[in-house]
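Listing S7. Sequence submitted for prediction.
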Amino acid sequence: MLHSHLTTLNAVSLILNLFQEEGCEATTLLAGSGIGPADLGHSDARITTQQELQVCANAVARREEIGLELGRRMHVSCYGMLGYALLSSATLGDALRLALHYPALLGTVFKLRLVDDGQRVWLSASEYHDSPALAAFNAEFCLVSLKVICDDLLGRTLPLLGARFEHTRPGYHSLYSGAFQCPLAFDAEDNAFAFERRWLDMPLPLADPITHKAMSERCRRLNLEFTGRQAWLGRIRQLLLQQLDAAPGLEGLARQMNCSSRTLRRHLQALGCSYQQLLDELRFDRAKQLLADEQMPIYRIAETLGFSETASFRHAFQRWSGVAPSHFRG
């Protein structure tokens, strides 16, 4: 799937910090993401979900259970203005409903819902459409971090009645007990954890109506900016996707976007990417789809993606994936 959503550098920074403690170089974890060490110093930097997932894939390749550890480190303070708005909410229910109202600021790759059956409430994460290889990682990271947020907001541990996951029980499932001290289920319909309904009405210790109003307004404005950038990036991707066989170049794309090439380049830099990175991402995704059809010759795939020579496509695919097209197909 092509990712047009934006997110913050929070998760990427957590990954780098965690592995730095183990002596792993940042460049290893950032490989293939298009994120440079210099980008990490910008507090308001935005990256695409695709870039974040690449860093996550690099982390999972080193430790498959890393999602559980990362989730435990994703405290409410990691969410900037949204975190302050949540902390100053009147009740846990108010805070959770606010968080679910701003998924872009929360940086989730799931659809989040509160499902109330009258006795218990399930905080559900479903409709995952990204890399299947990262499904378990993302579910673990999401649910553990949501549990940590609840604990942070309450100032105490939220007792859970149960937790369930869409993925099959992993070999390291014994580690789940550190985050979910409750009955566990796998191969479920969604990813979710449950707690008694009464906790939704629990007053938060740091509630402050004046601060909450101010922070909520800032979240609203930030969300408008965020979603506006997402729509803009989505338009760029759609235009490039329609022209993979004859890419327009930065100048041509700028004309199609009704802006100058300088403006386009500046906006892309603000998003943490470049014209070439976006084009490569789209070509790579399309190449993997075309290679699945074993009847389609590699030279024809190269032509479809706008490469004048098959050798150029082979070299590009090797750079993107680490393997030759024939190996990927095999």
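Caption to Listing S7: primary sequence and predicted structure tokens for the chain studied. The chain has a mean pLDDT of 90. Strands lie at 6-7, 47-48, 111-116, 120-126, 162-164, 184-185, 191-196.
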